[in-house]
Amino acid sequence: MVTENVHNYYETLLKGLINRDERFQGKSQDFVEDVICVTLNQLPAFYVRFDVDATFYMSEGEILQIEEKLKNALETAIDKIEKNPD
């Protein structure tokens, strides 16, 4: 049985943020993956089948709150990894 649709909602949003963030240009794969792990470990698990289904049932306030939590966690992770590169 394959369950490719089930994923952490935050992970999808985070990868989108990282792909648009110029600070990641030229960074190593290790750096990016460390930042992803540290960021996601700060957030609650939020597994969904389809992102559109999750957002359909959320208010605009809830969506903005999720985005803010994610951005804060990302900033913390970048700072932590840059200070402790090994």
Query: What best-fitting shape do the alpha-carbon axes yield?
Result: globular
SSE order, as H and E?
A: EHHEHH
Main beta-sheet annotation: 2 strands, antiparallel
Number of domain units: 1
Average pLDDT for all residues = 92
Radius of gyration: 14 Å
Q: Give me the count of strands.
A: 2
- The low-confidence runs, each spanning 5 or more residues with pLDDT under 50, are none
Q: What distance separates the N and C termini?
A: 39 Å
Count of DSSP-assigned helices: 4
Structural class: mainly alpha
Q: Strand order within the widest sheet?
A: 1-2
Helix content: 55-70%
Question: How much β-strand is present in the residues?
Answer: under 5%
Summarize the structure.
This protein is mostly helical. The protein has four helices and two strands; from the N terminus they run βααβαα.
Features:
about 90 residues, mainly alpha, about 65% helix, about 5% strand
Would you mind describing this structure in some detail?
There is one protein chain. With 86 residues, the chain is mainly α. It has one domain. The chain contains four helices and two strands; from the N terminus they run E-H-H-E-H-H. The chain has helices at residues 9-20, 29-41, 51-56, 60-83; strands spanning 7-8, 47-48. Strands 1-2 form a two-stranded antiparallel ribbon. The longest helix has 24 residues, at 60-83. The protein is globular and about 40 Å long.
